[in-house]
């Protein structure tokens, strides 16, 4: 576990947030006044590849570690927020189809929320990881006004996740699959070049957002096309997977090939946000992922490009904002904690 210094010990009841990932769990504590008690990443191994029993025990260990780190008595904990990668139901049952992190048969249909609740003896509130990050991004952006505002967040990584927040709460949907923004199919007119093949997604869709705006989309679809236009580019000598990961560094140097790729990503996210503008008309459009960790001038260029590609009416332009998601490495655990705090406050 990282030895992060506690900000302070709790003066009131608290909730704990646990973010479960493919290699690590991240934990935080949020008190009843809305203050986080740690300001660093606090991790322990997640052990998800060892199966459900080991993974639930690792989550329990993360829970105990964060209480010790923040000098929080167990008696002050009212609830635990948990997030995991999907696909999973709204109540935390891992999909029978499994996923990248939960690929063992023993995970298929496993109720991870219920198992952790039984292990800890405390109520556990579940969200998927992208929804939890979106919820934290919303509350960080709006502060005290968060419960009166709405937002849509696009989190660009290996895939593309995100979430829809209305009145300060994540829209989870009937099956827990609302906010799967990466798999929204978008019009490709104005995104692709005239001779560019229709991009395909691992989910089986063609022309969804993730097929363009993700590291996987770069590797499978965008970079092979653009390397054919720039055959002498240094990345042409690299294996395609490594080239895709190196591309952001070229973007920061305003390399023409890299800007062509990231420009298409920005246009695709702009198309998504245009759909959102006509569907939920949110107060804010939030953008997170690897681009947030980039050099400031490049990430501002990317955010501006997304804004320019989002078609808003004049009234919407006056009422909305665009912003980058902060504290992304801690956003999952913090969002899970925010969800738990709201659940306790509303009974």
From TrEMBL:
It holds the Pfam family ROK. SUPFAM superfamilies: Actin-like ATPase domain (SSF53067). It comes from the Bacteria. PROSITE patterns: ROK. Transmembrane segments: none annotated. Signal peptide: none annotated. InterPro entries: ATPase_NBD, ROK, ROK_cs. Belongs to the ROK (NagC/XylR) family. This is ROK family protein. It comes from Paractinoplanes globisporus.
């Amino acid at each position: 576990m990282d030895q992060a210094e506690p900000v302070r010990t709790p003066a009131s009841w608290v909730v704990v947030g646990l973010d479960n990932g493919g290699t690590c769990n991240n934990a935080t504590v949020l008190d009843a006044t809305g203050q986080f008690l740690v300001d660093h990443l606090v991790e322990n191994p997640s052990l998800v590849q060892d199966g459900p029993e080991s993974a639930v025990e690792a989550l329990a260990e993360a829970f105990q570690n964060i209480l010790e780190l923040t000098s929080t008595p167990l008696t002050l904990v009212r609830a635990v927020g948990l997030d995991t990668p999907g696909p999973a139901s709204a109540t935390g049952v891992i999909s029978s189809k499994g996923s990248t992190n939960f690929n063992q048969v023993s995970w298929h249909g496993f109720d991870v929320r219920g198992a952790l609740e039984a292990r800890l003896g405390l109520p556990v509130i579940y969200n998927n990881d992208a929804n939890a990050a979106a919820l934290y991004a919303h509350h960080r952006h709006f502060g005290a006004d968060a419960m009166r505002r709405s937002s849509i967040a696009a989190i660009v990584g290996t895939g593309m996740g995100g979430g829809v927040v209305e009145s300060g709460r994540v829209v989870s949907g009937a099956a827990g699959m609302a906010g799967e923004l990466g798999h929204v199919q978008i019009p490709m007119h104005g995104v692709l070049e005239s001779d560019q093949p229709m991009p395909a997604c691992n989910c089986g869709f063609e022309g969804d957002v993730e097929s363009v705006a993700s590291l996987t989309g770069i590797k499978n679809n965008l970079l092979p096309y653009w390397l054919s236009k720039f055959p002498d580019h240094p990345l042409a000598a690299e294996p395609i997977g490594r080239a895709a990961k190196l591309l952001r560094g070229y973007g920061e140097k305003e390399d023409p090939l890299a800007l062509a790729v990231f420009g298409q990503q920005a246009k695709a996210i702009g198309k998504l946000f245009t759909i959102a503008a006509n569907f939920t008309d949110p107060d804010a459009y939030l953008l997170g992922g690897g681009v947030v960790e980039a050099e400031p001038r490049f990430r501002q260029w990317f955010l501006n490009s997304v804004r320019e590609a989002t078609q808003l009416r004049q009234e919407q332009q006056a009422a909305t904002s665009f912003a980058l998601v902060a504290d992304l490495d801690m956003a999952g655990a913090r969002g899970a904690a925010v969800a738990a705090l709201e659940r306790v406050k509303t009974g």
